[in-house]
Amino acid sequence: MERVMISAYSNISSSAYSMNNYNSNTFSKNEAQKNHSESRLTGIYEVASRYDVTNISKNEMASMSKELYSLGEISLKEHAVLSFDSDAKELNATGFLTESNSQNKYNLLDEYNARIKLNQEFAEQDNIINNTKILESLMKLDSIKSGPFDLKV
């Protein structure tokens, strides 16, 4: 009889340990997710502080795209389009629909609005979706750079 009680106590103790271990692992996982989110948000702020999407060179655009992809802010396909997109026949010799300014820099908000408009004219649904996602990311960077925000994760 005593043996059964020890065995039963052992199971309860083991269950309690498992529950504590579960809570500890869950807490650690939640903390890791929170830290990752904070790190990603910090990274996005840093990208926004380094690049002006309304006045950006091709090299800066490629670097920014790589950073956004590394942060998980844009997909690989969006990174490819944002970094270099020479497939569109309608683009001028520079690879853009819009003209650069006197410093050979571009306004990406205007550029992607122009691309979306052109995609709509030709009913290019996949391009509309991809370019809209890119435009949304660019608008996010522009709004972070333009205004004081207190974003919480």
Key features?
153 residues; mainly alpha
Q: What fraction strand?
A: under 5%
Q: If helices are DSSP runs of H or I spanning 4 or more residues, what is the number of helices?
A: 5
Q: Tell me the helix content.
A: 55-70%
How far the N terminus sits from the C terminus, by CA atoms, comes to 55 Å
Q: How many E-type strands?
A: 0
Radius of gyration: 25 Å
Which quaternary structure do these chains form? single chain
Reported for the largest beta sheet, the result is: none
What do the pLDDT scores average to?
80
The 3D shape can be described as globular
N to C succession of SSEs: HHHHH
Structural class: mainly alpha
pLDDT < 50 stretches: 4-14
Helix and strand arrangement:
Elements: H1 2-50, H2 58-71, H3 76-83, H4 108-121, H5 125-146
Helix pairs in contact: 1-2, 1-5, 2-3, 3-5, 4-5
Outline of this structure?
This protein is mainly α and 153 residues long.
Structure description:
This protein is an all-alpha fold and about 150 residues long. About 70% of the residues lie in helices and about 0% in strands. It is globular, with a radius of gyration of 25 Å. It has five helices and no strands. The model is unreliable at about 5-15 (pLDDT under 50).
